[in-house]
Amino acid sequence: MRCPFCSSTTTQVKDSRPSEDHSSIRRRRNCVDCGGRFTTFERVQLREIVVLKRSGRRAPFDPDKLSRSISIALRKRPVDPERVERMVTDVVRQLETSGESEITSDQIGQRVMEALKELDGVAYVRFASVYKNFREASDFREVLGELSGDISGGSGTRGRADTSGT
Ligand SMILES: [Zn+2]
Known about the structure:
Largest sheet: 3 strands, antiparallel
Oligomer: single chain
Mean pLDDT: 79
Strand content: 15-25%
Number of strands: 6
Strand order of the largest sheet: 1-2-3
Shape: globular
Structural class: alpha+beta
Order of helices and strands: EEEEEHHEHHH
Bound molecules: zinc ion
């Protein structure tokens, strides 16, 4: 299992146990190279899904990869790993039961963003910033506006929306 932080493949399993509802097995892992800690989940795959990428290439859907990008967005956020795990399971189930054999990477990103928005605002912005690439500053303002009404209008009144970086 590749480390999501430094891409090393030398990682160790520290602990392994079933989730609350026994729909998955959670493994805590440690990266030997950078010391990074992350968690992986093993779950039943209902069906093979093919992802149609923006480049037009196709690749098999990889729930672990999805889970990793979500963990990176949630890094150091005070969110219960059980809730994260349920969220990932939900997104994967939605995709698997959508009836489509091919799903675009945009559709996946959209579902993850919707799920993250409910889970943790900061993680949502992090994920969205990677996913949407924020080619335009207006994208970022739009996302912040969606997040909470109180920062859509004013600029810097709360010192919270640090969007001024050049
Ligand atoms: Zn590492």
